[in-house]
Write a structure and sequence with these properties.
The structure is a single chain. By secondary structure, the chain is of the alpha+beta class. It has a single domain, classed as Roll (Nuclear Transport Factor 2, Chain: A). It contains four helices and six strands; from the N terminus they run H-H-H-E-E-H-E-E-E-E.
Length: 135
């Protein structure tokens, strides 16, 4: 009887451990693709991950935009503030499948803290919010 209890305990532990690790798995490459697009100042590649509506906060710009409008706003931003570097400081998953990316964006003239919120849309993570704020 003791052996059966031990085996059941081990099986349940393994099941719970593997179940929790599956939930935390993110789609392969999404953070890397977003990071690469920001580093390159490539609004077209970044827009691939925009949801239907994106809230964008940039120095001098604040609002909710359609995917096409958001791409144009980011293109203008990258033209004015050409990226020198972008580093991801934190990448976290949260309840409901949301994901947060926190990073630091540097251009020649400024350093900005970046906050990106991705939420599932049709079972795919999409950018819902992007905030570029002064350090």
């Amino acid at each position: 009887m003791k052996n059966i209890v031990k085996i059941l305990t081990i099986c349940l532990s393994v099941l719970l451990f593997t179940g929790s690790s599956v939930v935390a798995v993110q789609p392969p490459g999404i953070v890397e693709d977003i990071t690469a697009a920001i580093k390159a100042g490539n609004s077209k590649d970044l827009a691939k991950y925009f949801g239907p509506t994106v809230e964008i906060i940039l120095p001098g710009t604040d609002g909710a935009y359609s995917k096409a409008q958001a791409e144009m706003i980011m293109k203008s931003f990258f033209t004015k503030s050409v990226p020198v570097s972008f580093v991801v400081n934190q990448n976290r998953n949260s309840a409901g499948g949301a994901q947060f990316i926190i990073g630091t964006y540097k251009s020649k003239s400024e350093k900005l803290n970046v906050y990106i919120l991705l939420k599932p849309v049709s079972n795919q993570l999409m950018i819902q919010q992007m905030h570029f704020e002064a350090d």
